[in-house]
Amino acid sequence: MQPFWFPNGAIDMPTTLTLKNIPDAVYARLKSAAEMNRRSLNSEAIVCLEAVLLPTRLSTGERLARARELRAALPQQGFLADDIDAAKREGRP
């Protein structure tokens, strides 16, 4: 009989990882993020690693739909090309 927590017969045991020599600034940011998200340091570190190492893949259509949603949420202002060029020359982003 197979335990219910191993789907499709896969035995995927969690691995323990010990990190050494973590810079103080990194530790402080991780601790702050953990507190803000109401997680343990371990859980926050796992979430951060997953976000970087296992990014969600979006299809081209999904990415375009998201870009259109973001664009639609912006205030509808008209910018003239000359105004944009002038702002660039002034060093404004």
UniProtKB/TrEMBL annotation:
Pfam families membership: FitA-like_RHH
Residues annotated as domain Antitoxin FitA-like ribbon-helix-helix: 16-52
GO biological process: regulation of DNA-templated transcription
Highest taxon of source: Bacteria
Protein name (database record): Antitoxin FitA-like ribbon-helix-helix domain-containing protein
